[in-house]
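Appendix B, example 12.
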Amino acid sequence: MAKKSQAAMEFLMTYGWAILVVLVAVGALSYFGVLSPDQFLPGKCTLPPGIACIDHKATNFIGAGFGELYVVLKNGLGYDLSSISISATSCSSSVSYPILKNGEKITLTASDCDINAGEKYSGQINVTYTNVDTGLQHTSSGALTAKVGDEIT
């Protein structure tokens, strides 16, 4: 009986050490970001229904603090919009566009972004607009994830 139990213990210890080594290796890879799912997922842009995010791009000029986010939006709200602007996390300025008719597309830019080339940008975007029919101002919040490209001009 003692020999059978010793053989069973040796079997369990051998497999236990092997499993422990695998767990440590997976933990180390996760800790250092090799297994980070953000690096494998594509970029995405989501906004509430009515304002569609058709395309997006994040670029960096020269160095940190000189990046820009470009977002192409389509108006599907059923009415014309005026004073359309975008703000984003880690960006300090944006340009306001005068009017966006129902069904049309526009490219909005958020500039002076503190982003670095080669990294992943992930942040909140806010689209502010005014309903032409009523004159009321609205803000739609969404999320943007994109790989930051390097662009030299």
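The longest helix spans residues 2-31. Residues 57 and 70 are 5 Å apart (CA to CA).
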